[in-house]
Specification:
The complex is a heterodimer of chains A (140) and B (167). The N and C termini of chain A lie close together (11 Å). Chain A is built from 3 helices and 5 strands, in the order E-H-H-H-E-E-E-E. By secondary structure, chain A is α+β, with helices and mostly antiparallel strands. The relative contact order of chain B is 0.23. A 5-stranded antiparallel beta sheet of chain B has the order 1-3-4-5-2, with no helix packed on it. Chain B starts with 8 loop residues before the first helix and ends with a strand. Chain B is elongated. Chain B is of the alpha+beta class and 167 residues long. Chain B is 14% helix and 36% strand. Classes of the chains: A alpha+beta (140), B alpha+beta (167). Chains A and B meet through helix 1, helix 3 and strand 2 of A and helix 2 and strand 2 of B. Strand 2 of chain A pairs antiparallel with strand 2 of chain B.
């Protein structure tokens, strides 16, 4: 069930998604995106060559999870119009990540603007913005 | 630009030019594998009756999957030492800044992609800028990409960035 344009307001939070990515999920995401980058599976490379504590969760997986939170919230009647994120900090497997957003404005045409985020605790790892189109009550 | 620049002349010369044209077909099994890897079981990507009930002619490709539909085939012997292929980015190597990670992505979606669509992506280097961050110098590369289907409909326009740091 999609929220209707008339039912949402600036300041509303979308339903947040909480995920702890594990190495199995990382393997499948690398496979699904044909990504051979060693920092996602080769611990010796990630630690020894690149100086990280462990292998890294893919930035594009964080983005995909954030997009999932949005498309789950808008439902089948909504449409993702624009999606913009920046990779600000890395995440390691096993860390609890929260994906969510807050409405920053509404525009003609059923458009809703949001600030979106991936957070670890209070730290924003991936900030961004999005625009979605929501169905109107009048049309449903 | 100082002689110590992290940006080599070959890469700098690519600013404003098309560095990659990639084509690929959209396959529902591929996008469904991607969606499953994200834990994203949205019925729009899986259930044709549900998608038709919401105005689409069939299940649709998840918007963020479109970028992967044009990935080519990498010969293992031609990978960079870090295992990445660089095929889609136009093989920009930045020898003085070999540690790479995704910077960000900004995409506007115009139309959905369906199973069987033939996608063409055209990627242009928009900018290559050297910056100073909390953990030292890095290179920020920004590409602009257009995705069109077999009818030349514009499906999406994307701006993608990559960060490359010195070893």
């Amino acid at each position: 069930m999609s929220p209707c344009f008339e039912d949402v307001d600036t300041g509303d939070e979308i339903t947040a998604l909480t995920v702890s990515v594990d190495e199995t999920q990382m393997f499948f995401f690398s496979a699904a995106t044909y990504n051979g980058h060693r920092i996602h599976y080769d611990k010796d490379w990630a630690r020894g060559t690149e100086g990280y504590d462990n292998v890294l969760v893919h930035g594009p997986l964080q983005a995909a999870l954030l997009s999932r939170a949005l498309t789950d919230w808008i439902g089948g009647g909504g449409r993702l119009i624009a999606f913009s994120v920046q990779n600000r900090a890395i995440a390691y497997p096993g860390q609890q990540l929260t994906f969510g957003g807050v409405i920053t404005g509404k525009r003609n045409g059923g458009l809703v603007d949001l600030d979106i985020y991936c957070k670890r605790g209070a730290e924003v790892l991936m900030p961004g913005t999005a625009t979605v189109a929501l169905p109107s009550k009048a049309a449903s | 630009m100082s002689s110590e620049s992290l940006v080599d002349a070959d890469s700098a010369a690519k600013i404003g030019t098309v560095v990659a044209v990639a084509t690929g077909d959209v396959y529902r099994r591929d996008w469904q594998r991607w969606a499953a890897a994200v834990g994203d079981h949205n019925p729009l990507w899986f259930d044709a009756d549900y998608a038709r009930g919401h105005g689409y002619r069939d299940i649709i490709c998840p918007p963020l999957y479109l970028q992967y539909s044009v990935l080519g085939v990498a010969a293992l012997g031609e990978l960079r030492p870090d295992g990445s292929s660089g095929a889609v980015t136009g093989s920009m190597a930045f020898p003085k800044a070999p540690r790479r990670m995704a910077g960000g992505e900004s995409t506007t979606f115009h139309l959905p992609a369906y199973h069987g669509d033939a996608i063409e992506m055209t990627r242009t280097v928009e900018s290559i800028v050297e910056k100073e961050g909390r953990s030292g110098r890095f290179v920020l590369v920004t590409w602009r990409s257009e995705y069109r289907n077999q009818r030349r409909d514009l499906l999406a326009e994307a701006s993608t960035s990559m960060i490359a740091r010195p070893a």
